[in-house]
Design a protein that fits this description.
- By secondary structure, this protein is an all-alpha fold.
- It has a domain of 190 residues.
- Helix content is 72%, strand content 0%.
- It is built from 14 helices and no strands.
- α1 runs antiparallel to α11 and α1 packs across α13.
- It is globular, with a radius of gyration of 19 Å.
- It starts with 10 loop residues before the first helix and ends in a 12-residue tail after the last helix.
C-alpha cells in the first residue's frame, strides 16, 4: 500500500503534520512543569494529576467534535492505548528515580526504534531505506542533545532498563492510538485512553506517593493544570489528531521534536545553555524527519 505524501495531498495532510509538530512541542515543555511541580508532590502523583486534570477539557472537546455526527468507538485499541500510556508514565518516573535524568531521557527517546521494530516484526511492514536513514539521524541527534550528560555505571543499570521499558510502552501507545483512530475521532480516543490511564495510575500514586499526593499551594495546582492542559490534553490530543492521517512510523520520528523543544525550554526558562554539539544534534533530528517524510506519489501518465 502506498504511503500518503505530505506534499502530494496538500492541506489534507499538511494540517495533521502541523498538529503533530504542535503536539510534540506541547509535550516537549512538560519537563519544565514537572520540575516545578515536583517540589510539592511525588512523581507518581504528578503523573496521575497530569491526566486527571485534563479530563474535563477532553470531555468538552469530545462533545463538540461529536455534535450532530456518529460518535464511533475506539474499541480495545483505545483501552490498550490507556494501559500503554500508564506504563509509559510509570516506568518513566521509575527511571528518573533510579538513574540520571539524562539517561532516562535518552532511553525514552528510543521509542521510534520500537515503533519500527513492532511494525516490521508484528505487522510485516518492512521499513524503507528513508525510514531507516531518518531513524538513524534522529537517534544520532538525540545522542548529541543528551550525550554530554549521559553517565554509564553498573549501579544505574536497572534505571536504564526502566528507561527502555518507557520507550517500549510509548511505542505501543503510538500504535494503539493509530489503530483506535480507525474507528473513532481524536477526542474520543484521547479521552478513553486518559480515563484508563488515570484509573491505572490512581492506586500507584496512592501507595507510592501517599505523603505527597496533594499539591500544597495555588502555584502547585497551577503548574499541574498547565501540565495537564498543555502537555497532556494538547500534546496527546494533537498526536491523536495526526495519527488519524499520518503513518505511525513517520509520526514517531516527528516526536523527536519533543527533545528539541525540551532542550530549548530548559535554556530559556531554566537557564540550561546549549552547546554547539547539542545544537548540531537538533539539526540532525530535523534532517532525519525531512529524510523520512512521506514521498510524493507520482501522478499516473496520461495516455
Amino acid at each position: 500500500m502506498a504511503t500518503p505524501a505530505l506534499d502530494a495531498a496538500g492541506p489534507s495532510l499538511l494540517l495533521p503534520f502541523l498538529a503533530l509538530c504542535l503536539g510534540a512541542a506541547a509535550m516537549g515543555v512538560s519537563p519544565v512543569f514537572v520540575r516545578q511541580a515536583s517540589a510539592e508532590i511525588g512523581p507518581f502523583a504528578l503523573a496521575f494529576w497530569r491526566v486527571v486534570l485534563a479530563l474535563p477539557l477532553l470531555a468538552a472537546w469530545m462533545r463538540i467534535e461529536e455534535r450532530g455526527r456518529p460518535s464511533g468507538r475506539s474499541g480495545a485499541a483505545g483501552l490498550l492505548a490507556g494501559l500503554a500510556f500508564a506504563g509509559d508514565l510509570f516506568f518513566w518516573h521509575l527511571s528518573i528515580l533510579a538513574t540520571t535524568v539524562a539517561n532516562a531521557t535518552f532511553f525514552a527517546t528510543t521509542a521510534p526504534l520500537f515503533v519500527v521494530l513492532v511494525t516490521w516484526l508484528a505487522f510485516r511492514r518492512r521499513p524503507g531505506l528513508a525510514t531507516v536513514g531518518g531513524l538513524a539521524l534522529c537517534l544520532g541527534g538525540g545522542v548529541a542533545l543528551i550525550g554530554e550528560s549521559l553517565q554509564v555505571a553498573p549501579g544505574r543499570t536497572v534505571g536504564d532498563l526502566y528507561g527502555i521499558a518507557t520507550a517500549l510502552f510509548f511505542a505501543l501507545y503510538f500504535l494503539a492510538v493509530a489503530r483506535a483512530r480507525e474507528g473513532a475521532g481524536p477526542a474520543r480516543v484521547t479521552l478513553v485512553a486518559s480515563l484508563v490511564t488515570a484509573a491505572a495510575l490512581l492506586p500507584v500514586a496512592l501507595i507510592l506517593d501517599a505523603g505527597r499526593f496533594w499539591p500544597t499551594s495555588l502555584a502547585g495546582w497551577t503548574t499541574l493544570g498547565l501540565l495537564a492542559w498543555v502537555s497532556h490534553a494538547g500534546g496527546q490530543g494533537l498526536l491523536s489528531v495526526a495519527l488519524g492521517r499520518l503513518p505511525a512510523v513517520f509520526s514517531s520520528l516527528v516526536i523527536f521534536l519533543e527533545a528539541i523543544v525540551a532542550a530549548a525550554a530548559g535554556w530559556i526558562v531554566l537557564g540550561e545553555r546549549l552547546s554547539p554539539v547539542q545544537l548540531g544534534g537538533g539539526a540532525l533530528i530535523l534532517l532525519g524527519i525531512w529524510v523520512s517524510r512521506p514521498r510524493r506519489v507520482p501522478a499516473p501518465a496520461i495516455p
